[in-house]
Each structure stands twice: as structure tokens, then as C-alpha cells.
Design goal:
With about 250 residues, the protein is α+β, with helices and mostly antiparallel strands. It has helices at about 45-55, 75-90, 175-180, 195-205, 235-245; strands spanning about 15, 20-25, 60, 70-75, 95-100, 105-110, 135-145, 155-165, 210-220, 225-230. The chain contains five helices and ten strands; from the N terminus they run E-E-H-E-E-H-E-E-E-E-H-H-E-E-H.
Length: about 250
């Protein structure tokens, strides 16, 4: 998959906002904040959200650069701390939609420990030999599709639409877990299938990772009320769903 290059700042969709929290629908290809991943990058979700609402924002969780969907920021350091505590306590529920290779079981608990991925710059002073960390993902298969073009040695391409709910928050957890069970996510250039990715690009015009943070649910740190936020699909993912006849899952 090609690296997304924004010729101009993307227009962000605000999904939720009150005096304590704001949530946006992060586009695929946009970094959350400045990172050693790409020192030359000038566009970040944090700064774009700050400029959009004319208020300082504080990150409380992350989405990988190629992943789209719900991204929540706090509007004060105190709220950021309280929200971070919910994430640490696994009191936040995040659900993702992913398109993966092949047909998967109807339901599956993926309990597979993952070795920590360290940044070669930011984490250069951290221990490199830590034991793998517990990582658990709940999978539910929503739909399947078989399309009339080859992926690798197979004459046709079979895909599953899955809902993934991580119980832990390891780096690249969903991508690594799906690769572990041999059903990699389409468009995953780090953990996926190169032949599958090329077939999806050539035949489906899929030039991004097929992973979308569909929803997030948490207890508001100030009001103590339940907050449920959802994010719609972008044009590329919508067209992929339409091609697979998964219309009921587009909105």
C-alpha cells in the first residue's frame, strides 16, 4: 500500500464535543501526534483538532497511522489523566471493523502474548529483552465475500468482515493477532500478505489498511454518564464494502 500524502490538511469530522472531551474521525494516513516514525511530517491529528476547535487538546489513546476512526482527546490535563486511568483499568470498550483474508470462525478469542515493539529512537534506552506481554482480542465474523480475481495461487479471493474488540492495548495488536491466526488484514504492509495486498490494490483500489475504529464506549470522567461514539467509513472503505455486498455495515 502506498504511503498517504496529504496535499492539504484533511477536513476533520467532529463526532462528539463537550467542555471536557472532543472526538474526531481520524483519516487513514494521519499521525496522531509528532513521532519519530516520520520526522518530516507536518500534519497531525492533535494539531489539526486543536486548530479546528481553537482549544488545546490532550491525547489519551492512539490509533496507528494507517487506521481510521474514532479518536478521543481530552480538553484539560486533569480529564486526560482520568481518561488514561480508564484505559489502564480496561474500562474502555473499543470496537474495530477489519477486512481480512479468508473465512474466519464465527467467534474466536485470540489470546496470544506479543513482544513489545520498541521505537529505535524514542525507546533506545529501554530494555530490549522483555518477556512477551499478554494480549487478548475478541473476534466476531460479520460477513464473507468471494470475488472473481486471484490472490496469490488462488483463482478467487475470499474475504471476511470481522468486528475486533481488543481487551488489551498492545502496539499493532489487532494487525499482529490477525496475522498470527493466518487471516491478515488487507493492506497491512508490516504484518500482512504482499500478494493479497497487491490483488486488493489492483482489483479493489484499496490503497490503505482495511482497519477502522468503529466505536468507543466509556464513562464520562466528569458526569459519570456512559458515552458511546461511532465513526462512519471513508470513501475507500465504503467502496470496498459495496464491492463485497456488505451494504448493511456501511453506516
Amino acid at each position: 500500500m502506498r504511503k498517504v500524502v496529504f496535499e492539504q490538511p484533511p477536513t476533520l469530522e467532529v463526532l462528539y464535543q463537550d467542555e471536557h472531551i472532543v472526538a474526531i474521525n481520524k483519516p487513514s494516513g494521519l499521525l496522531v501526534h509528532r513521532s519519530e516514525i516520520d520526522k518530516r511530517e507536518t500534519l497531525f491529528a492533535l494539531q489539526l483538532t486543536r486548530d479546528l476547535i481553537s482549544q488545546r487538546v490532550y491525547p489519551i489513546h492512539r490509533l496507528d497511522r494507517p487506521t481510521s476512526g474514532v479518536l478521543v482527546f481530552a480538553l484539560s490535563s486533569d480529564v486526560a489523566r482520568m481518561m488514561s486511568e480508564q484505559f489502564i483499568a480496561h474500562a474502555v470498550t473499543k470496537r474495530y471493523l477489519a477486512v481480512v483474508r479468508g473465512y474466519v470462525p464465527k467467534t474466536l478469542t485470540i489470546d496470544y502474548a506479543l513482544k513489545e515493539i520498541l521505537d529505535k529512537f524514542a525507546d533506545k534506552d529501554r530494555a530490549q529483552d522483555k518477556e512477551p506481554q499478554q494480549a487478548v482480542t475478541e473476534l466476531q465474523s460479520l460477513a464473507t465475500a468471494e470475488l472473481p480475481f486471484p490472490s496469490g495461487r488462488y483463482p478467487q479471493s475470499r474475504y471476511s468482515l470481522v468486528e475486533l474488540t481488543p481487551a488489551t492495548g498492545r502496539k499493532h495488536q489487532l494487525r499482529r493477532h490477525m496475522a498470527h491466526i493466518r487471516h491478515p488484514i488487507l493492506g497491512d504492509t508490516n504484518h500482512g500478505d504482499g500478494k493479497q495486498n497487491k490483488a486488493a490494490l489492483d482489483n479493489l483500489n484499496l490503497d490503505r489498511l482495511a482497519l477502522h475504529a468503529k466505536s468507543i464506549e466509556f464513562t464520562h470522567p466528569i458526569t459519570n454518564k456512559s458515552v458511546f461514539i461511532t465513526a462512519g467509513l471513508d470513501k475507500t472503505m465504503t467502496e470496498l464494502f459495496e464491492r463485497c455486498d456488505w451494504h448493511q455495515y456501511i453506516n
